[in-house]
Design goal:
By secondary structure, the chain is α/β, with parallel strands linked by helices. The protein is built from 7 helices and 9 strands. It has 2 domains: 124 residues, Glycosyl transferase family 10, N-terminal domain (Rossmann fold, 3-Layer(aba) Sandwich); 66 residues, no CATH class.
Length: 206
């Protein structure tokens, strides 16, 4: 019974559990609902944790990282009676009823369970400013494009029109299409361009 008490969602129990984690030499982790090429064995979180712990992937983790708000029928978080960490890099708010800690772009004041950590904070800015393949980039002849079907993102649409006043911008989506119809494959389409307009669909502080 005492062991289960460590995972009750109360501040006292979480403080006890945090101290237990701090004393660990090995920490077990698991991830859910991340992107397709996400490597659960080698990623930003495992590299940070490995500076202090030996990190293991486990079906019975000490830390469970997830990006899904679980608003539908998917309830994977219920399998893990441990510290749950929500990573909110999409424009969605954390459900504090199902997570213990939150990493996202929102602004909170005096919340020890929250850390503002927008997506760009995980990027290597010195690398992202440079083309991955400079020679291939310089050989591209087309200027800019976008692939958009949502007509409600006003800032994105305004930017498209403003940039189009400077130079031709090809639109391969269902909205503002000017290439003869929606493209069949987005990745194949955009690889011929030097620049891609890739605004998010929605806007939120942070």
């Amino acid at each position: 019974m005492a062991k289960k008490a460590l995972f009750v969602n109360t501040q006292v129990a979480k403080k006890i559990s945090c101290k237990r984690i701090q004393r660990m030499e090995t920490i077990k982790v698991n991830f859910d609902y991340f992107w397709n090429d996400f490597d659960p064995a080698d990623n930003y979180f495992t590299r940070i944790l490995s500076k202090k712990y030996k990190v293991e992937l486990s079906d019975k983790p000490d830390l469970f990282f997830f990006t899904n708000t679980y608003g539908g029928s998917k309830k994977e978080y219920l399998k893990h009676k441990c510290h749950r960490v929500f990573l909110g890099w999409e424009n969605m708010r954390a459900n504090w009823n199902i997570c213990d800690y939150v990493l996202d772009s929102d602004f909170y004041s005096n919340n020890p369970r929250h850390k503002r950590w927008p997506i760009w904070a995980s990027w290597n800015n010195s690398r992202i400013l440079q083309p991955k393949q400079p020679e291939a980039y310089m050989q591209k002849k087309k200027f800019a494009c976008m692939v958009v079907s949502n007509p409600h993102a006003k800032e994105r649409i305004a930017f498209f029109h403003a940039l189009s006043n400077y130079k031709q911008v090809d639109s391969g989506g269902r909205y503002l299409n000017n290439v003869g119809g929606p493209v069949a494959n987005k990745r194949d389409f955009i690889r011929d361009y030097k620049f891609v307009i890739s605004f998010e669909n929605s806007l939120y502080p942070g």
